[in-house]
Design goal:
single chain, alpha+beta, GMP Synthetase, Chain A, domain 3, Ribosomal Protein S8, Chain: A, domain 1
Amino acid sequence: MTETQRQNAAEGTDTLSRLEQEGEIAADYLEGLLDIADLDGDIDMDVEADRASVSIISDSTSRDLQKLVGRDGEVLEALQELTRLAVNRETGDRSRLMLDIAGFRARKREELAGLGAEAAEEAKSTGQPVKLDPMTPFERKVVHDAVAAAGLRSESEGEEPQRRVVVLPA
């Protein structure tokens, strides 16, 4: 192994351990919140696409965790930001941690990927740009990825909170 390969391997290990540390800090923070709110849930940690990913899951049939998702994921977004701030406070580094609660984000990702694929097909068949409704940054990212997978380009336009994806024909 060359020195460059050793250095790259060490950097990859450092990145992984940093992301695992972010996940552990986030899990501790979220466990505290669950205790305060007297809600049941298990914490699952992972590293996906160069970011820590933490999920709160529950095997109970109660809808308690839905309170932490809120309408259209608004509470989830706020909790994700608070969790990122908790990680930042501990590490001193900005976190790109992704939080999911009760599978909300996973379901949303599937729905948005379908929307992106449909918009790409429409742009291909009509030859016209397709403008989608305003979305959050997470939602736009998923749609951009789906459009790229369909072989087209897309871009975001507008200002928050009215920023939207425009799918461009070939």
